[in-house]
Q: What sequence folds into this?
């Protein structure tokens, strides 16, 4: 009898030990926050860049997750369910269990987010509709400051610098807004650009505008009322997103992978590296020596770019089974 009891207790201890050993635990970070198309919003542990691991996710009632940005312990996601487009806010203080704490619906199709850290605001372009501005000083209850619908074109991306908002306006090229007074937004400039403008970044006196098939346009924006194109980089391919840090620009070119440009002389960009990713490169984020790529159906890809001229494969993480498409990524 004692022998039987001992065996039962020992068996229970083994089961408890196995469960404990397989329990997910979050490392010290950083973490990748990924908009994963029809599989919603996912968080990956990058404590070991060579071995990214999924931690938590949220995909209830999500139709398509387009873009995610993170500020402090909160993640902001734009996407759509059926005909409804929304901004959703998540508490990610526990990356194992992200919790939805707020939501706002919008008109149009939202595909990107810009966070103004200084003023605790979010700017969201919504396709053919216009531009939304939300106050996120209380993340659980984002409040609409401005709903601006006085633009033509298809608003895809926005970058705010000082009193100006630069909008990648689809077929209409680039639009510059004076937002010094949100009650009286003014259109300052419009620059026609070949192709469909998808993404915009402003760094100092230069703007970097990504178009779908005509590549990268580099703009002089010292005078926001009169932006001028000063250079371009237009290899063959279809283009989606970009990341700029220091003297380098990382260009996501879908099936053509990632291009790395030296932009230390913005008027003369130099192609210094390229990596042909296994999937379709939609978005990228650099931290330290590593570039993390949202690589479509292949999930997330980690590249060592300590030498930009020779990017090296480090790791990748793909969800099993029907695995959706990683389309947006931020590291935090």
A:
């Amino acid at each position: 009898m004692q022998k039987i009891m001992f065996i039962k207790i020992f068996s229970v201890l083994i089961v408890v030990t196995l469960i404990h050993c397989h329990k997910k635990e979050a490392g010290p970070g950083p973490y990748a926050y990924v908009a994963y198309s029809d599989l919603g919003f996912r968080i990956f542990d990058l404590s070991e860049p060579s071995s990214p691991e999924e931690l938590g996710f949220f995909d209830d009632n999500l139709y398509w997750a387009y873009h995610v940005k993170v500020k402090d312990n909160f993640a902001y996601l734009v996407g759509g369910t059926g005909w409804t487009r929304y901004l959703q806010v998540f508490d990610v203080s526990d990356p194992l269990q992200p919790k939805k704490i707020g939501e706002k619906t919008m008109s149009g199709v939202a595909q990107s987010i810009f966070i103004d850290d200084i003023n605790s605001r979010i700017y969201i372009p919504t396709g053919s509709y216009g531009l939304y501005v939300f106050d996120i000083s209380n993340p659980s209850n984002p409040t609409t400051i401005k709903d601006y619908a006085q633009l033509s074109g298809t608003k895809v991306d926005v970058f705010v610098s000082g009193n100006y908002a630069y909008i990648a306006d689809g077929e209409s090229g680039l639009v510059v807004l004076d937002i010094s007074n949100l009650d009286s937004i003014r259109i300052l400039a419009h620059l026609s650009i070949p192709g469909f403008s998808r993404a915009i970044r402003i760094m100092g006196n230069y703007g970097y505008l990504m178009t779908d098939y005509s590549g990268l346009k580099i703009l002089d924006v010292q005078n926001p009322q009169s932006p001028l194109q000063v250079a371009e980089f237009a290899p063959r391919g279809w283009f989606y997103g970009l990341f700029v840090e220091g003297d380098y620009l990382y260009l996501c070119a879908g099936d053509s992978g990632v291009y790395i440009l030296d932009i230390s002389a913005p008027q003369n960009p130099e192609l210094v590296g390229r990596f042909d990713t296994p999937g379709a490169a939609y978005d990228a984020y650099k931290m330290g020596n590593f570039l993390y790529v949202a690589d479509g159906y292949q999930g997330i890809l980690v590249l060592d770019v300590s030498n930009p001229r020779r990017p090296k494969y480090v790791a990748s993480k793909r969800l099993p089974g029907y695995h959706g498409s990683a389309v947006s990524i931020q590291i935090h």
Notes: The radius of gyration is 22 Å. The CA atoms of residues 252 and 276 lie 10 Å apart. The longest strand covers residues 64-71. The chain has one helix and 28 strands.
